[in-house]
Amino acid sequence: MSEPPAPPPASPGLPAAGPAGTGTPAAENAPGPGGRGQFGRAVLDAILEGNSVVVTILAIAVALVLGGLLIAFTDPAVLRAWGSFFANPGHAIALAWDAAASAYVAMFEGAIFNPHTVAGVFHQASLATALHNGYVAAVFNPISETAVNATPLIFTGLAVGLAFRAGLFNIGAAGQWIGGAIVATWLGFGVSLPPVIHVVVCLLGGFAGGAVIGWIVGELKARTGAHEVVVTIMLNYVMYYFLAYILGTSAMQQPHSTNLISPVIAVDARLWHIAGPSLRVNAGFLLALAVAAGVWWLLERSTIGFEFRTVGANPSAARTAGMSVERSWVLVMLLAGGLAGLAACTVIQGTDYQLNFQSYGTYGFDGITVALLGRARPLGIVLSALLFGALHAGGVQMQAATQIPVDIVIVIQSLIVLLVAAPPLIRAMFRLRRARAGGLSETVAKGWNA
Amino acid sequence: MTTLTTAVRSTVAVNRTLIASATFVAFGLADILLFGLFSHGDATFAFAQFGAKVGVPNLVLPAAPVAYALGAVSIAIGVLRATVPLSRAGRRACIAGAVLAFVISLLCWADAGNSTALNVINLLQGTVVYSIPLILGALAGVMCERSGVINIAIEGQLLLGAFAAAVITSAFSSLWLGLIAGSLAGGLLGGVLAVFAIKFLVDQIILGVVLNVFASGLTGYLYDRALVPYQNRLNSPVTFSSVKIPLLGDIPIIGPVFFDSTIFLYITYAMIALVQVGLFRTRWGLRVRAVGEHPTAADTVGIKVLATRYRNVLMGGLIAGIGGAFLTIGQVGSFGKDMSSGEGYIALAAMIFGRWTPLGATAAALLFGFSTSLQSILATLNVPIPSNILLMAPYIVTIVAVAGLVGKVRAPKADGQPYVKA
Q: What homologous superfamily is domain B121-405 in, according to CATH?
């Protein structure tokens, strides 16, 4: 056991980085040059040193530029123009610019704000008629779509991130999502309860459904040492097939249907729309924010959270200090599974209202990238889920408006995470000084032996 | 500290014996209670192969008695494991015996009283073919991780390899160019993995997952943008045809299964042998393992740690790329979105299940290949179980095996930790 000494903790609220953190070069943690004191100086320092916020913003910018190049140079018209570049270079460059710009404009209009909708409001006789006819709602529709897309990602991001903090790699959010979805959907159409209670019961059921799947992983790891990566991958497959099976049985299948689809859940079980009936944004988004705050409290302020973080940073030290590593594993996987189950609730009870074989989408795996971009911290997870939600919402609009495949969004997402994870690369690109704290590595770097 | 660790280890060892023997007994009970009790009549196994020079007669077994006997064997193995201290080879033989007993009882049950014979040759051929991308992917993982770099990007390497192979084969109508392109595409992603992991010290788990997402997004985007509109020119590759090895290919049973397949199977054999012998019987392998276990010590004796890692990650990528190429120009033909469908993750599981050894990973990959093949065979046999439940079975069996028989595995010590010279 001759491990090099761990680097000093990057911030007081954070346990020392685990064994893998020893790989962080000393220079990364060396104090930055120059004194501070004045606010302006501090801001300048932050920018020049490329702290994590600056690196993240630059990474997003670089990823968007790369994505733009990919859009431009797979456009047939652009390629033709570049084929005869020297005949008319200006034309070729302009075409490339137009292709990328129109895609991003459409994306922005789908995710944040579409100026045409505002024009629509002003063409109405009065604000009252605009409100009544849904023109005002149309202005806020992109933001609503972003929030709707971000909601399940916040939950699956938390499911992966919470496990990361305890040193576990939860690839199983997809399976846990299905576990939650089955229970929540069944409670949604199978029982009839008074309005508010029905929603709560479905949410609890969804949490429990996901928690059971997560618990199996933690329990097996604690009792037999079975590696959580293998078990979660296997459980994902088990749950896919179980979903396909149960949607074909009389217990879950919509009557008189031959498709693998459940009945529609009761109106009372649906999450409330919080911005009028025409916008899809619902109480699930508020729940996600509240749960993220709860997870923050659990991790940073509670005894259990302290144990999680200690186990994640150094299981041997945790055991020596009298903590039960095994109990932490079981508990953290149970909670992570429950969070993934809640992600399913927000989809089923918030927007889809019924479960089909495709419902699980990519929430589970997107949760991994969200958690990684958010550095496994609740606030970071919320912000990165919002970013990815915006990219998803914008991507749909972009495909409709420009016929550019929506998969470009996945490319941009992965580039963002890749670049954020490599602060030295970003700093080298923009000639920034070295920051005092390391990059993404210090939070979640863990080998298999963790 | 030392005494503490030993104490913890010894209790784990006792538990391990108990858990393992309990798992063997559970397998035995499954043989008896699930397959024995529900089997009625005889099971017929066919070994017929179209065009074979030597005919092999059908094997008819009374299903229930065979399942009972095999269940008893499995329970006996469990008792043996609990009472007698066994060598490592002995413990492995136990696992192999119990798994084999389980599989044979399952087959007896599946075909019991069925008028159609279960064609063993088809089953085994399917096993081998389905295993090819898994084995190559798992070997890629072993190559990277033995040198200390975690490779979760196997899925992405398979996908990119499949894409490149399909496009290049279609565009140049050359299978060999396609194969090389597929391999290089996997190697390219391996190169990105290597640079970010080794030079920029990026967390390797993040990196692997992100590269998978990147490969999925990039190939999905290019598929919609280029392959769909230009289907004929870019996405209609020919596929490799089977090559029968003279003499060996004519051996009954073994010949058609192992020596009558596409070039990919023979490449896979070569790769298994190369990686196994290379890692454990050559100076190069010793150095690689030293770098993966204790890079500081390796550096001290003059082994170039970073160069070794770059080389291994690149080679791993090239191997996985061949596995990807198999998906298109060895099997399906045209490329489809996300066509690797999680096989890279299965390969990852096989590598961990196989304890980071080429042969262990190959055995685990064959197990997954067998279950996939079994599913397609059972689908034709009218087994009285919903197909989706059947499809779940291999994954549940894997969980049971990993939890009950393998337990805690140990990765190379420095796996996932970037090396920075002090």
A: ABC transporter involved in vitamin B12 uptake, BtuC (1.10.3470.10)
Interface of A with B in 297-356 (CB under 8 A): 320
Which pLDDT score is estimated for A445?
A: 46
Verify whether the Cβ–Cβ distance A411 to B214 is below 8 Å: yes
pLDDT in tens, B117-146: 888 888 999 999 999 999 999 999 999 999
Question: Cα A274–A279–A283 angle (5° rounding)?
Answer: 30
pTM: 0.84
- What token pair was written down for A48? 């020049």
Q: Cα separation of B206 and A373, whole Å?
A: 9
Judge whether B72 is closer than 8 Å to chain A, CB to CB.
Answer: no
Q: Which residues contact A335 (CB under 8 A, 6 or more apart)?
A: A162, A211, A214, A298
A-to-B residue pairs, Cβ atoms closer than 8 angstroms: 200
Q: Is the pLDDT of residue B250 over 90?
A: no
Q: What is the ipTM of this complex?
A: 0.84
Backbone angles phi, psi at B251, to 5 degrees: -65, 135
B286 CA: distance to closest CA in chain A (Å): 21
Distances (CA, A) of B231 to B111, B224, B234: 42, 10, 6
Contact call for residues A218 and A235 (beta carbons, < 8 A): no
Cα–Cα distance between A269 and A201 in angstroms, integer? 8
| Beta carbons of B220 and A320 less than 8 Å apart | no
Over residues A366-417, the pLDDT tens digits come to 999 899 888 889 999 999 999 999 999 999 999 999 889 999 999 999 999 8
Pair A278, A148: CB distance under 8 Å: no
User: Hey, which residues 157-216 in chain B have their CB within 8 Å of chain A?
Assistant: 196, 200-207, 209-211, 213-214, 216
CA atoms within 13 A on the CB side of B161: 35
Using DSSP's 3-state secondary structure scheme, residue B343 falls into helix
CB contacts, 8 Å: A418 with chain B: 196, 202, 207, 210-211, 214
Q: Which of B 220-239 lie inside 8 A of A, CB atoms?
A: 220-226
Q: Are A384 and A378 in contact (CB under 8 A)?
A: no
- Quote the Cα angle for A370-A58-B153, to 5°: 45
Lowest mean pLDDT among A83-97, A101-115, A271-285, B232-246: A83-97
Q: Encode burial over A100-127: b for 16+ CB neighbours within 10 A, e otherwise.
A: beebbbbbbbbbeebeebeebbeeeeee
Q: Are A235 and B206 a contacting pair at CB < 8 A?
A: no
Best of A66, A240, A408, A414 to disrupt the B interface (most B CBs within 10 Å) is A414
φ and ψ at residue B42, rounded to 5 degrees = -95, 150
Q: In this complex, which of B200, B221, B345 lies closest to A411 when CB atoms are compared? A: B221
DSSP state letters, A214-246:
HHHHHHHHHHH---HHHHHHHHHHHHHHHHHHH
Q: Where are the domains of chain B?
A: 15-116, 121-405
Strand partners, B61: B43
Question: Per-residue pLDDT for A346 more than 80?
Answer: yes
Q: How far apart are CA A436 and CA A427, in angstroms?
A: 13
B18 touches chain A (CB under 8 A): no
Residues of chain B numbered 311-370 and touching chain A (CB < 8 Å): 342, 345-346, 348-349, 352-353
Query: In which band, very low, low, confident or very high, does the pLDDT at B2 lie, cut at 50, 70 and 90?
Result: very low
Nearest to B207 by CA among A151, A439, A175: A439
Enter the tokens of residue B215: 């490969």
pLDDT at B54: 66
Which residues touch A139 (CB under 8 Å, ≥6 apart)?
Answer: A113, A114, A117, A118, A120, A121
Give the minimum alpha-carbon distance from B256 to chain A in angstroms, rounded to a whole number: 31
